[in-house]
Amino acid sequence: MATGTGKTRTVIGLVETLLKAGWVRRVLFLADRDALVRQAVRAFGKNLPDVPAMDLREADKAEKARIYVSTYPKIMNEIDGFKEDGTRRFGPGFFDLVIIDEAHRSVYQKYRNIFRWFDSLLVGLTATPKDEVDRNTYSLFGLEQGIPTDFYPLARAIEDEWLVPPRVIDVPLKFPRQGMHYGQLSDEEKDQWDALDWGEGVEPPDEVDGAALNDWLFNIDTVDKALKFLMEKGHRVEGGDRIAKTIIFAKNQRHARYIVERFDHSYPHLAGKAARVIISSDDRAQTTLDEFSDAAKLPDIAVTVDMLDTGVDVPEVANLVFFKRVFTSSKFWQMIGRGTRLRPDLYGPGQDKEDFFVFDLLGNAEWFNQNLPRAEGRVATSLHARLFATRVDLLCTISLLEEADEELTGLHDDVAARLHKTVAGMNLDNFLVRDHRSWVETYAIREAWSREKIGAADPQDLSDLIENLGELPTADRGDGTDEKSKRFDLMMLTLQLGTLRLDLDVTRVRENVRAIASALLENLDVSDIAAQAALLDDMAGEEWWQDITAPMLEIARLRVRGLVGLITKSQQKIVYTDLVEEIGEVREVELTAAAKGVNAKRFRQKAQAYLARHLNNLSLQKLRRNKPLTQQDLDELGHMLVDAQIGTESDLLAAAEKAHGLGRFIRSLVGLEREAVEEAFATFLQDTGATRAQQDFVRLVIDHLTDNGELDPNLLWEDPFNRDDPSGVSGIFSDPVPLVEVIRRFNAGADLPPSVTA
């Protein structure tokens, strides 16, 4: 379902239905961020107030809850928890329904074991376009790729007027798209360029790539012109005195702060109030977001980095500014979704929000309009698993050597001991480990890693060993917890393999290790590094690497691994320029994924306005008075719209197909004459001896038919027809069939009579 169409509300309705039917007793709703967990708890509390819902972090409410809302990591940790009586808190049968919010590729890759653990019904929700959902995600639900159980795309939601369409304005800023080139600068700008401090010992470059803009190089005029364009061209409220709520998507936190700094400089009367940074590292982020979400409060402009991409519902947002490149389709459409919400009376009484601007400064819309083929996602292998696999490979390689000296034998034993401790530390009660119990029990024995057994193992068996044990959690912390040290371990183990196997090219890895050694030598003021200066000097050179052996590399690994975290990262000098920015040809770009809905909505609006000016047309009069139509009447009405260039024939055919006939489509635009409707129902009321309540009910039916041209009988049990009686038509009429038949005759009056169609 497209962002903004109510995924959470829809699934709450499903939960309510299943609870009432007795199909489920307890429900688990999973979201990927704490903010979305809180949002979901509020949504369940609002729409199902009689069913206790809780944030899983609030353990004191657990016994009373029927609906549990959690992040994925939290429930994974809780699955292994036990109650005081020794039973699991969340056994496989605890939940009857598991709901996955935003069921995309990364959720399947990281957390698929959750869904395997619980024996429950499974529902997945996503705003990702159906053709871009990963194959593995479809397989999780037992579905064919590209064919979800149901879908409601953005174009359909716009056409049905549940969302407003984006108006994408391409604003081609020169420097972020093309970079800066010294030869293209004016003489005055060249002098400024040469005088800039590019860093100690760094000569002014001949050019700077566009990717550097707003990363480490900030140009005053680039930001100023972008803000000026927004303030002059963006949607405004309060009679034009105030910019409508706006989200600016910045490249990074420094960029976000710089945008606000330049805004305050350019608009001093709004400084510190109208534009604010909302980023996760800011302690006041949630408070500022709450203020931004309030239509009456400032700020009006939220400058953010990732934090407002998803899960933020502010219907007043009428401007989005893409001040960065976006390469992920799901993320791009989530960001577009920040502006699609309906907002009645945004610009004043009766002046609703009909669209929103997307000021695209970096060409994102054109990128996603290309509909480039999407690479199938692969499960990312963790660093822990890669270390495990490399050690198994190294162990096997040494075991297969015809002759191994004492040093290599010692290396083999050390590697075998490390692998054994890793497996021995795997807890069989852990739900992730349980499915691999036989493998863990086999290799938790030290003898399983002996040279004889590993050397005799079939290659497929070793591959299965890695696949079954490599990713499992372990209590063993022999490698420590520092990521940089473990990455260094992986490089050195790979180099050890390279000394034993001629088929491996480890040149690139060797150069990376030499670079690390060189970087450490620049920090000899650190005593621990100074103590290994001689070894580091050898590793940074070339001679040491000639005829290097695996045991020598193992000694170097052990002596250096604890030092790599001490490397001081050289900081790129931040440069500020004041060069004249240029804006190319500004043009409106159609987003192809939303275009169908936008075009259908605009066609309907144009057709309605045109027909309202031609109500004296004979065919239209017959349609509005519910008189029998001929094929000639329908042809004439169709030609009217096409000849007046209200739309194309394909627009007309699509609208007629959706309305189940051209006559029904056109009558939905012009309605029925009230006199004709009242005349038909007068006979009905007289024949049935209607009560006062029944007469009032029929008056609602007449109002609806007059305004809309037809009435779906199913609506007779919904608002506004259930306002006087919750049972709708069934509570007013003991037998609603005669009334329904009259309505159906009116609906069919927009079709050709059976004799004509035959």
Automatic annotation (TrEMBL):
<dbReference type="InterPro" id="IPR027417">
    <property type="entry name" value="P-loop_NTPase"/>
</dbReference>
<dbReference type="Pfam" id="PF00271">
    <property type="entry name" value="Helicase_C"/>
</dbReference>
<dbReference type="InterPro" id="IPR001650">
    <property type="entry name" value="Helicase_C-like"/>
</dbReference>
<dbReference type="GO" id="GO:0003677">
    <property type="term" value="F:DNA binding"/>
</dbReference>
<protein>
    <submittedName>
        <fullName>Type I restriction enzyme, R subunit</fullName>
    </submittedName>
</protein>
<dbReference type="InterPro" id="IPR013670">
    <property type="entry name" value="EcoEI_R_C_dom"/>
</dbReference>
<dbReference type="Pfam" id="PF04851">
    <property type="entry name" value="ResIII"/>
</dbReference>
<dbReference type="GO" id="GO:0006304">
    <property type="term" value="P:DNA modification"/>
</dbReference>
<dbReference type="InterPro" id="IPR014001">
    <property type="entry name" value="Helicase_ATP-bd"/>
</dbReference>
<dbReference type="InterPro" id="IPR050742">
    <property type="entry name" value="Helicase_Restrict-Modif_Enz"/>
</dbReference>
<feature type="domain" description="Helicase ATP-binding">
    <location>
        <begin position="1"/>
        <end position="147"/>
    </location>
</feature>
<dbReference type="GO" id="GO:0016787">
    <property type="term" value="F:hydrolase activity"/>
</dbReference>
<dbReference type="GO" id="GO:0005829">
    <property type="term" value="C:cytosol"/>
</dbReference>
<dbReference type="Pfam" id="PF08463">
    <property type="entry name" value="EcoEI_R_C"/>
</dbReference>
<dbReference type="InterPro" id="IPR006935">
    <property type="entry name" value="Helicase/UvrB_N"/>
</dbReference>
<dbReference type="GO" id="GO:0005524">
    <property type="term" value="F:ATP binding"/>
</dbReference>
